[in-house]
Amino acid sequence: MSFPENFLWGGATAANQYEGGYLSGGKGLSTLDAITGGDKDTPRMITFKTKEGEVSQVKANQSLPEGALGYIDSEQYYPSHVATDFYHHYKEDIALFAEMGFKCFRFSMSWARICPQGTEEVNEEGLQFYENIIDECLKYGIEPVVTINHFDIPMYLADEYDGWSNRKVIDYFVFFCETIFNRYKDKVKYWMTFNEINFLRSWTQIGIHSSEPQSKYQAAHHLFVASAKAVELGHSINPNFQIGMMVAYIPSYPMTSKPEDVFAAIEYNRQHEFYMDVQVKGYYPAHQLKKFEREGITIAKEAGDDELIAKGTVDFIGFSYYMSTASTVNLENVKYIGGNQVPAVKNPYLTESEWGWAVDPLGLRISLVQIYERYHIPLFVVENGFGAVDEVTENGEIIDDYRIDYFSKHIQCMKDAIELDGVDLIGYTPWGCIDIVSAGTGEMKKRYGFIHVDMDDQGNGTLKRTKKKSFDWYKEVIATNGEQL
After folding, report:
1. 170 inside domain
2. Catalytic residue of the set 19, 136, 143, 383
3. Is 19 a catalytic residue?
4. Low pLDDT (below 70) residues in the chain
5. Among 44, 113, 284, 412, who pairs with 442 as Cys (CB 3.0-4.6 Å)?
6. Which residues pair with 57 in a beta bridge?
């Protein structure tokens, strides 16, 4: 068989898109709690208060004015407040994951649920909630895979500290890590520090108010130091911990064989590789230092930062793969399509999803080969999936053959990467294994899951869980360890 005997088949979710339980059980406010819904034509918005006390909004990928505070307006709809309510359905959902045969379940812990302000005040009810989830997974033999921080930050740290631009936030994050490492040290083996660290760049994700490159890269340095400290701390608490990083990987191909296009693709791919280089190799790559020099960016470091980063390298690379893109210097001929958090260039050889994401199964094999041959440590595909509108038939069925087709082709390419290319791949957790709120658009109709949840874009619905056709298909894939596609 191509897949290792102990291969970690499972699924992945994020607290802010799935959990709900807004302010339940002592949870504090998160930046994502102030983000409205939307759709592919209507952008998500951040609601905030100005220094003068006026309520206003900006697009969710933009920065807030200096001194602005996150705000919850009772007239607005905020999808994270209920999401698809894992908070009250976790036993039912994990039982369904077990029925599919999951070997692991990747979920994130809300920092604000455990440390309501992100500081050193600990909420026992939040800790117990996640312990209940972990215990429920272990009851079925499902390995918990925990993302420590997934695309948000406690709102207090954003409002009072300007988020990750402030070095003090490193200490608060490490305290959060120490709290959960100690609490779950005998129950959780696999951890990832930051979700898609290369996409952490705004108030929504890291609590910073400035959109200037200087501010974003300074915040990134603080993230690197925090991750390295967490790795060292985790290994000291339990040497058997496997602590990884997580990056969004979107490989770019040269649009033509023109050398300038080839180099444009190299420059694009460096945007992902930089974040892996620091966390896997333990130092800033030379090309990034030259970029800082050209752009007048100066990273403020404390004595010992470089040594910390060098010592706190990760055990594995987790990455998301949804699509590929293309690079060219002839920008006047470029057509842009949808992308995972970034604009992507249309590749004439690929089809796209309804949301404009290029469908490229071979790109997953290419990604696995490129990453493994660059870093030579185990890889974990922790996000991959197909967002689509699912129709419920008159008899209540969801026939999602398009999703089955997408997954079968991508899994085949993973098999090829293992069997033909020798890639060390430890697991696969498709994104949104149960329907959750879309991170990019804030809508429900863009669905990824093997399990349907009755909820619409305005938050209306019964939250009833229903198996889609892909549920039984994925169950057979896991049962045959990837041989039956």
Report:
1. yes
2. 383
3. no
4. 1
5. 44
6. 47
